[in-house]
Write a structure and sequence with these properties.
The chain is α/β, with parallel strands linked by helices. 24% of the residues lie in helices and 20% in strands. A hairpin with a 2-residue loop joins strand 1 and strand 2. 51% of the residues are buried. Bound molecules: zinc ion.
Length: 282
């Protein structure tokens, strides 16, 4: 078994920028760290309290906290962390952050085995088409971390206690306990990796940062039937804006069209033709 502590892993190529942030809504700050987005929820014009949604790649905890200081000031107060899921590129910085701010970490109960050291995610599927990234994905750390002391279940009423105005939606498929977060005001969707806005397996598209609504990252998605149902669920919400785990935020007609097309043609657009997790769509 490989160790998960190394920060020198080859990472999925989804962004050419590192450590850059962008306000996508007065309350939502998208912080791209290496290849993945973490989100700071909170409006610095109103308060220096904030909530972190997902926690970046291994070694990114300090960078996230620095960015929070720039946005919310030196007295910023992290209130809680909410995880869309527990893949290594969404929890990589969490230990460093919890050292400084021992806050609660909210996640779906179905994700708990992977966040309490009880279960590892299945090995990535290196047989799927998708070229470079899939081939490299066997190097991704998949071992579960253990943050049991901090972990708290997202409540059954779908509220997100540290994020008033938001609700969580169970969007399994990429992982069993994957959730997306939706705010009615502005119809804003944080979709994690339920779908992403960049074609992760095309180096050209990553370099160009070409935006497109794309299915979840192929090599780590284990239940394609559930992943499809989750995309349909999210399309039915008719979001005005969406920010995802990988790629740039999208909004308006471009998002609506892309999401409906993905939901309508999911097997052709998103599901690899072959692969060890693919049979679940039969
Ligand atoms: Zn993921």
């Amino acid at each position: 078994m490989e160790t998960s502590s190394s920060t020198n892993r080859i990472l999925p190529v989804t962004s050419i920028r590192s450590g850059s942030g962008k306000e996508v809504d007065p309350e939502v700050y998208c912080y791209a760290v290496q290849v993945v987005n973490a989100f700071m929820i909170g409006n610095p014009a109103i308060s220096n309290d904030w909530v972190l949604v997902d926690a970046g790649t291994p070694g990114s905890g300090e960078k996230i906290l620095q960015a929070a200081e720039e946005r919310f000031g030196p007295d910023h107060r992290l209130q809680a962390i909410v995880l869309t899921h527990g893949h290594f590129d969404h929890i990589g910085g969490i230990a460093e952050i919890l050292d400084r701010f021992p806050v609660l970490v909210y996640a779906h109960p179905a994700e708990f085995p992977y966040l309490t050291g009880k279960e590892n995610y299945p090995d990535p599927d290196v047989t799927v088409e998708g070229g470079m990234v899939a081939k490299l994905s066997k190097l991704f750390p998949i071992e579960a971390i253990d943050i049991s002391e901090h972990l708290k279940e997202l409540p059954a009423d779908h509220s997100v206690p540290p994020m008033p105005g938001w609700r969580w939606i169970h969007t399994p498929g990429h992982t069993p306990g994957h959730v997306s977060l939706f705010r009615e005001q502005g119809r804003f969707l944080l979709a994690g990796d339920a779908f992403i806005t960049v074609k992760q397996d095309s180096l050209y598209k990553v370099l160009m940062q070409k935006k497109e609504v794309h299915g979840p990252p192929v090599y780590l998605t284990t239940d394609w039937r559930a992943a499809w149902e989750s995309v349909v669920k999210l399309a039915d919400l008719e979001p005005n804006a969406a920010a995802t785990g990988h790629g740039k935020p999208m909004h308006g007609a471009e998002l609506a069209k892309g999401l409906v097309e993905l939901a309508d043609h999911f097997p052709a657009r998103a599901v690899p033709e072959h692969g060890k997790f693919v049979d679940s769509t039969d």
